[in-house]
Amino acid sequence: MKVFCIPVLCGVLLSYFGIVSSSLVPFPSTTISLSDFLNNQAASIDGTTGNFDKNGSTYVAEYLPRGPWTFNGTTYDLPTSWGSGNDNVVAEGQVLELPNATYVHELHIVYAGDGGGLGGSHTFNLNYDDNSVKELPFTCKNWWKWSILNWGDIRTPYHFEKYGASRNWNSSQIFQMSVSIPSRAALKSITLPQTADTSDTPDRLHIFAVSMTPSVVPALAPTTPVLSVRSAQFSTRWENVNGRRAQVVAITLANLLPGSIATSRSASINSKYEVEVIGEGLTTVTPGVVYRLVPGDQARFDVLVLNDNGTGNATVRVKDAQGNVVGTSEGWPIIPLRENWTADESVLATHETPTWWNQAKYGIFIHWGIFSVPAWGPPDEYAEWYDWHLHNPANSSSETWEHHLDTYGPNVVYDDFIANFTASKWNASAWLDLFDEAGAKYFVIVTKHHDGYSLFDTKNTTHRSSVYLHPYRDFVKELMETAKAEKPNLHRGTYYSLTEWFNPYYSKYGFDRWPGGLAHNAFNASELEPYTGMLNITDYVEDLQYPHMLSLALDYGTEIMWCDIAGTNKTLEFAAQFYNNAAQNGYQVTMNDRCGAVPDYDTPEYATFGSLATRRWETNEGMDPDSYGFNAATNASEYKNGTTIIQTLVDVVSKNGNYLLDVGPTAEGEIIAPMADNLLAAGKWLKYAGECVYATDYWYQTSQDPTGSFRFLTTPQTFCIVAFNKPTNGSVVVNAGGVVLPIQQGDAIRLLGPNSPGVFSDDTTAQTSGLEWRMDEDGVLTIDVPEDQ
Fold first, then answer.
1. Which CA distances in Å does 706 have to 611, 710, 735?
2. 233: helix, coil or strand?
3. Which residues form the Glycoside hydrolase family 29 N-terminal domain (predicted)?
4. Of 17, 227, 238, 601, which one has the fewest beta carbons inside 10 Å?
5. What's the CA angle centered on 53, arms 47 and 56, to 5 degrees?
6. Rounded to two decimals, what is the model's pTM?
7. Is the omega angle on the peptide bond into residue 547 within 30 degrees of 0, that is, cis?
8. Half-sphere exposure at residue 372, Cβ-oriented, CA atoms within 13 angstroms
9. Phi and psi angles of residue 226, each rounded to the nearest 5 degrees, phi first
10. Residue pLDDT, tens place only, 372-398
11. 273, 404, 403, 259: which is closest to 327 by C-alpha?
């Protein structure tokens, strides 16, 4: 893969003398009426009317906002009443005509999918007045998903099922999404995706409201950019600045001029602009910076402020390279940095992923436990689910049952494998060295999977643990302490399953594939198998699950609580203590979407989003194509190689995600050579190209070209193009599909490689170096690449 980095510190600094300080353009939004297209009733007062999902399910009307609804500065027309008729549009290829052809900067959609999974990818068609058509990919999330919590912007605590006959107490969601619209021509209409489904298990896109942000089209050739503060959010993140906690204010700055003039230098920011936040009780200690902002684009950055009981509204102030105030934007509510978290969903829902997690991008997942002893699973089954598949079904139709009978005989039960979980080759330092060399910035170790066997000290909640059973070691403690001492650059996380397949005390809460109750012997159903190490307790959640989670947070100092399966839980109480403890001890932590409540980020499994998702997310998958736990039946050639790892990482990061890649060690604690070698191959690439991965941001206008051959990422000073294919005839041709790349005359393009000097910073003499390049009138970029590079 080739990585091209374009520093946006240009040799010619534009001078803005004579610009008078003024208010920046307010970020506009205009609603688009859906009244002629409403064809579905999603909400009901009592569940007896409406049918959102073709199965008689509906949202609860009383929890939904009514009429004009403003979210993140955009106003939408929602129904003035819910439950009395059609309130949304099932996308079936309808065409939304704009009153007038308009240059559009951004499209805003309030929506939900009605499927049972995470969601799907759909495509809108944008129809322009020059007769061109642009496809707009759109990632749709479904209104609820067990056990992964799709966290929306409008939430109801439950929904009606079967026309009101029952209630589903899973939180149900409606989402808001804003997407960039190519503005090289005026938009005439929008064709909705075709998601009509005749099956009983639909996966349709429901649209509740649509708004747009028009571009600002000047009467004459512009001499300055038209800047607008898209958002200014006082976040829960903070950084240490001279011994004090400086609050992060997340700013998005837009250039509202149309993309048709994106190559105009006078219409762009081309030098160092600084952005401050001022107001009563506020002091900007680290301003945000923008070096390049072309028409049609947006820049996201953090401003660090000391917030001494600030009140009222803040003002965002933008200064040019000479320190002149270009403009201001007022009216942004000051929200104090939270110092105390309570077990209140509305409070905890404001928590965010820390800056370190946002910048890390790449982590290592570790699945290790009793299941590492049999280390087997058929294709398309996780090896760590060995115990479940041994018993379900407990007959010859289960490949795992057949394998167990042939390999171990009928008298060996799952818990007999505990004695063979030796960790005889385990070396915490060696693992951490590998993760570090692989380029990972954090790790997450499985502390307890669904079989209930833990790798940490469970104290007197249960002795089904490596501390009290073979091999009598606290692996979590050893790994955490070694990482803290030897690899402080690696952040430390813990996976914890909230449920257990066969714990008798879980039967009170059991469901589906997590029923609780002792397993019947797989070869003699009249016998119950042991649950080795179990102690007498009163309640699984109060006496085992909740204490375990608190111990991982308070005793082991995890920075990531990576839950799984959810079910009944005390996550609200846990999260408050987790966040408070971290803050009191000077670090920041995060929690995923499988703990049952208030997630910081989403976790698609063995899947990625097809387009940009602005909410933080992290895909997770094994190096093994079918398993997280080590599967001895997998051929080494099937593991993800270095190229696949890097391409997946870059693709995920370009869409605003992190990549958590799993390794499955053997029962002896060894990460086998094929896995290690492929990790190191990826790490080698990251050593010279990592500056176009770590601490990058997605490019607002598009994450990739239409062919999927390139991915685009940004930093404040650079624009990165990652090419997935080798140059053809000595050149790389980048066509972003009608979107003009933010590259202008005077920019230098550098190929990152093992011997390259890296991205240059303020050295303007470097502008004369780099590869030859040219851009045609359609915005297609051609880069000449010498054969020796």
1. 11, 9, 8
2. strand
3. 341-691
4. 17
5. 35
6. 0.96
7. no
8. 26
9. -105, 105
10. 999 999 999 999 999 999 999 999 999
11. 273
